Amino acid sequence: KADLTGANLTDANLTKANLTPATLINANLTDAHLHGADLTRTNLTKANLTGADLTDADLTHANLTKANLT
Hints:
By secondary structure, the protein is low in regular secondary structure. Helix content is 0%, strand content 0%.
């Protein structure tokens, strides 16, 4: 279980990454490439996902409390 709390992953290429069940609280994922990523049970509380590509990403049971999905 990866703890990436507060990580800066701006423009990161995480295409098809397995991030289950990672902790990404307050992480900056602005413009991140998460196409097809497995985010099952991932904690994305207060994460910044502005402009992130979540196409085909699995967000089953992910915690998106106060996440920015603009």
